[in-house]
Write a structure and sequence with these properties.
Layout lengths: L1 H17 L21 H14 L7 H7 L5 H8 L2 H9 L15 E4 L12 E11 L6 E13 L2 E8 L12 H5 L3
Antiparallel strand pairs: 1-2, 2-3, 3-4
Length: 182
């Protein structure tokens, strides 16, 4: 009887080794800037909460400094260091660059990322329900945009905004495309 148990022991170890899961991306990069704790949906919601509390319109240098923990390294560099992108940003009509409506949102609700099965994902697009109460009439305008969240090191950050609202104030489909030289 003991001999049978000893014969099964290596088989049990072999079976246990077959069921271990290795992450798809072992090295997910690094991040030199501070970041916000939480999953992609929590970070995006915290960004929009902060953004709504700020004066709407094109972000100032001080606002971009506040947004730094929420933005990816690449997006932050485009917004602060790329001279061509800064010139294009300055030439855009006044308005919110982080949403498809020039007035910007007065409320935002980021869809949950809990239904995403791949926990090793490096990027996740999330829909955002945005709304703004119009001044004067009190009517509420609703629209959706999408934020592309990427993982940098152990942090999630916004890498792009896809403008999905009808009659968008921006000439291109995403924030990055809007800032590209055409």
């Amino acid at each position: 009887m003991k001999k049978n148990l000893y014969a099964l022991l290596p088989l049990a170890f072999l079976l246990g080794a077959c069921t271990q899961v290795e992450p798809a991306f072992k090295d997910i990069g690094t991040r030199s800037a501070p970041c916000v704790d939480g999953g992609p949906d929590e970070v995006a919601q915290a960004f929009y909460t902060l953004r709504i509390a700020q004066p709407q319109g094109k972000p100032t240098a001080a606002q971009l400094g506040q947004y730094r923990p929420y933005l990816s390294e690449r997006l932050f560099q485009v917004l602060t260091a790329d001279r061509k992108a800064q010139a294009k940003l300055g030439a855009l009509p006044p308005g919110d660059i982080f949403s498809s409506k020039a007035d910007g949102p007065s409320a935002a609700e980021v869809h949950s990322a809990s239904h995403i099965l791949n926990t090793d994902a490096k990027n996740i697009p999330l829909r955002v329900d945005l709304s703004r109460v119009q001044s004067g009439g009190g009517q509420t305008v609703h629209w959706q945009d999408e934020v592309l969240m990427i993982r940098e090191g152990t942090c999630w950050a916004i890498d792009d905004v896809r403008y999905l609202g009808t009659l968008s104030a921006h000439p291109a489909g995403t924030l990055r495309q809007t800032l590209e030289e055409r």
